[in-house]
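Kindly inspect what follows.
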Amino acid sequence: MPSPASGPRSRNRKVAVAGVALSDCGRVDEATPYALHAQAARRALADSGLDRSVIDGFASAGLGTLAPVEVAEYLGLRPTWVDSTSVGGATWEVMAAHAADAIAAGHADAVLLVYGSTARADIKARRRTANLSFGARGPLQFEVPYGHTLIAKYAMAARRHMHQYGTTPEQLAQIAVQARANAAANPDALYRDPITVDDVLAGPMIADPFTKLHCCIRSDGGCAVLLVAEDRVPDLAKPPVWVLGSGTAVSHTTMSEWDDFTVSPAAVSGRLAFERAGVRPSEIDLAQIYDAFTYMTLVTLEDLGFCAKGEGGAFVEKGRLLRDGALPVNTDGGGLAACHPGMRGLFLLVEAVRQLRGEAGPDRQVHRADGTLPHLAVASGTGGWFCSSGTVVLGRE
């Protein structure tokens, strides 16, 4: 077990990202989800330069009956602070916010967030089937009998945006095209071949207006992020990336309770995160945004304040989201091209940290206009069908 810190802990500590890592990703047929958790955790610890004995906090969701107890046991950890919050794809940004608050308040010194999934391999081996809904109990019972699937909900929201603001299928397709272009320079991306707007539009229809390439891929993979108190920074193997601010929000579960299909809870979580970080959207150098579908990227860009409501379609045109564009977005290729093993939100934090450290590699590293490394990044996760959102602002000194 981790040894208790000597003396009282400060209640206003800065929080740093100490280590980040991916497990093997893409097509991983032989590993279990637990093994991917362990692989990512070991790599993140190695990246930080710290010993596992410093970990006194642990956060995990999506695996086991008693998550995160089972995963912590598998990893040989006995944490004194835990979080198992599960709000879909936004889980990891929400957990990061909780962990940062706990560290700042002195409730933990080092919190490990870890995720792993063999979603692709399980379907290929027929260990599971593709899920059409999240269940038929509670409020969802009023929608599921009518075939109101997860993707149908996103498609309805996209259609509303198109009707209300004139957003076009071509503009949505631009998001998929630029994600694939960013993935081309990422050796860990599952799909790296270029695609065109015509390729996206000509694909098989999944849920109008989404063709296949409007939708995220299904992959295997895992990742881990280690957050620590500023006291640990002198012991780190690499310069820290700081958690500057975060925000969380939930919106709805039944579509009839969603006030506006064109506004996501990122409008709230983003505002809170930027206010708490003391920065403006215009100061952000790059954004990592949950992109299970192209519309998620577009509406989140609007709700985070990178463009006005209804202007997302025009904003994503002309290569603006590319690595060397005006606002690099999902620089690893995102869920549309790089990897999407399930609750992808933790991958957003890993990529943001690597870009801020300057570790993305010569072909895909983001630079500012003056040639320097980026200073500020935002990671914004979305859960369910825009049901939840977590936004984290990161920066380096």
